[in-house]
Design a protein that fits this description.
Strand 1, helix 1 and strand 2 form a beta-alpha-beta unit. Helices cover 39% and strands 19% of the residues. By secondary structure, the chain is an alpha/beta fold. A 7-stranded parallel sheet has the order 3-2-1-4-5-7-12, with helices on both faces. Strands 6-15 form a two-stranded parallel ribbon. A two-stranded parallel sheet has the order 8-11. The chain has 2 domains: 197 residues, NAD(P)-binding Rossmann-like Domain (Rossmann fold); 82 residues, UDP-galactose 4-epimerase, domain 1. The structure holds nicotinamide-adenine-dinucleotide. Nicotinamide-adenine-dinucleotide binds next to helix 1, strand 2, helix 4 and strand 5. The site of nicotinamide-adenine-dinucleotide has 30 residues, from helix 1, strand 2, helix 4 and strand 5.
Length: 315
Amino acid sequence: MHLHASKVLVTGGNGAIGCNLVQKLLASGTNVTVLDDFSQSSIHNLNNHKNLKIIKGDLLNSKILKKTFSNDFDAVFHLAARFANEMSVYDPVEDLRVNIEGTLKILLESAKKNVNRFVYTSSSSLYGQTNLIKKNESLFPKPTTPYAVSKLSGEFYCNAIHEQYGMDYSIVRLSNSYGPYDPPGKYRNVIPNFIQSALKNKNIVITGTGNETRDFTFVDDVVNGIILAAKKPKARNEIFNLGTGKETKISTIAQLIKKNTNSKSKIIFKPKRKFDHITRRKMDISKAKKLLGYSPKTDIKDGIFKTCEWFSQNR
Ligand SMILES: NC(=O)c1ccc[n+]([C@@H]2O[C@H](COP(=O)([O-])OP(=O)(O)OC[C@H]3O[C@@H](n4cnc5c(N)ncnc54)[C@H](O)[C@@H]3O)[C@@H](O)[C@H]2O)c1
């Protein structure tokens, strides 16, 4: 797929990763349609652009689906989802509705319209509780939250629809994306929540010991990986981990944020959240490196610096 002059749909295109992806696609000359209900993201994320069309609505609404797929698309990037593990524990049925039924509906409409490539953003959380810290794509998933189950189900549906209708897909399993436009909030990610506390000189609360690790990936690298998965012939009907291949402790993240925001916040510790059983995780990205030419560029220090700078200017 060549990006220039191609037509794509980005579901969830107003979200934290979606709006970064949309901006990159527009800059490459792509015509972009965004389908988003704005339930989890700010109306200020995307500016008007001559090649951008925004359809505001629920992807489960049949009128909205009809309107969206009255257009033809070369590729569909399916990012819309209920986010994420914690929210799914409180409302597993709504998680299933949006992440499984919603994904199936977008897949079926895309297949009917002969979309060339369906890119599905899956999650590293589907690996769940396995003893191996470094996750590779062939590990048997052991999801421990409804969200991890729903993201895994979406992967299975990509393959089932490919088998039934012949539509090609690429699956990217993302790992703890962070960067500009990632909003803080009750069910949101640790980095924007720590930054918000630091900027207000409030306590930075770590749930656990602080020695827990994740493979935090700067959003520009995530977006590059997603686009490579759409473009590369070798990515057809394959699954790729996208991360950095490195783990960072939560306590390191808290300290870096405190330093970059010149904050007077104290770092304090509270008991682990009940649903969170995963203590350490990093991604094996060798497959994405080999087949996609994926190469994450931003290390954690630079990424946290850029993210803090963005939040300081945009709060
Ligand atoms: N951010 C991460 O660290 C991470 C990690 C792994 C996987 N992912 C996956 O990547 C994708 C994008 O993540 P994100 O961080 O940008 O999430 P996000 O919550 O910021 O964006 C999702 C977007 O989907 C929209 N949306 C939700 N329900 C909808 C519905 N019913 N109809 C239409 N739009 C709807 C929201 O308003 C939001 O703009 C998701 O599929 C997520 O599961 C993200």
